[in-house]
Specification:
single chain, alpha+beta, Pseudouridine synthase, 2 domains, 9-stranded mixed sheet
């Protein structure tokens, strides 16, 4: 497997995860996953983390962008602590249907289980706090109205960005689960996955003085899709 490495030092590496790659194996999947790549790249990680080989967070199968992997137990625990304490700034780019009524917004809705899907429904089971901020980058007019958003999830609930944006009437283009399913514009049928990309992760190193920012360029397929619906983008 060839997965681009954005940054690497003695403590961790940052990967540029491709779209349509599972992070961890599922019961029904026979395809190789990101964990398989890590087993080959960092076999020594089995000594301290035999399950995830140093991976401290996840991205959805269809989501591309920055992923962090620890290379030793000390840094593994450090990164886990940062994520738990919400001290890692996460920055995503999303294309959604519709135009928000303000340039910046906050979505503060707990997420739990409603049947087999995650939801913000008040009757959902095991609801946990979930907070997402967003900023409008550009309004786009193609066959429909679209918005290009920067999204900053403060918490890390499964599918949080997708669920939150759909809840406020700005579903992510290409999202087959939480997104729009009916009356899809012809142009958006050409997108083979959800338009969601992790642009950057930013955090303090253990010395508490040096801040590092790991960035990933927008994936090629998403760039091409933007050009198609709006050549000026």
């Amino acid at each position: 497997m060839k997965i681009p490495i954005i940054f690497e030092d003695e403590n961790f590496l940052a990967l540029n995860k491709p779209a349509n790659l599972l992070v961890e194996p599922t019961k029904n999947s026979q395809k190789k996953t990101l964990i398989d790549f890590l087993k080959e790249k960092l076999p020594q990680n089995k000594n301290f983390d035999s399950q995830r080989f140093g991976l401290v967070h996840r991205l959805d199968k269809e989501t591309s962008g920055v992923l962090l992997v620890a290379k030793n137990k000390s840094f593994f625990n450090y990164l886990k602590k940062l994520f738990k304490e919400r001290k890692i700034k996460k920055e995503y780019l999303a294309l959604v249907y519709g135009w928000p009524n303000k340039k910046r917004g906050e979505i503060n809705l707990p997420i739990g289980w409603g049947g087999k899907l995650k939801t913000t429904d008040k009757k959902a089971r095991k609801r946990k706090p979930a907070l997402t901020f967003f900023e409008l980058i550009k309004k786009i007019k193609g066959q429909e109205k679209y918005s290009l958003l920067k999204v900053f999830p403060k918490t890390g609930r499964t599918n949080q960005i997708r669920i939150h944006l759909a809840k406020i009437g700005l579903p992510i283009v290409g999202d087959k689960v939480y997104g729009r399913k009916k009356s899809l514009p012809e142009e958006t049928r050409k997108l083979k996955r959800q338009f969601l990309h992790c642009l950057a992760l930013e955090f303090l190193l253990p010395n508490k003085k040096t801040k590092i920012r790991i960035e990933s360029d927008l994936a090629k397929d998403l760039k091409e899709f933007l050009k198609m619906i709006n050549p000026e983008t």
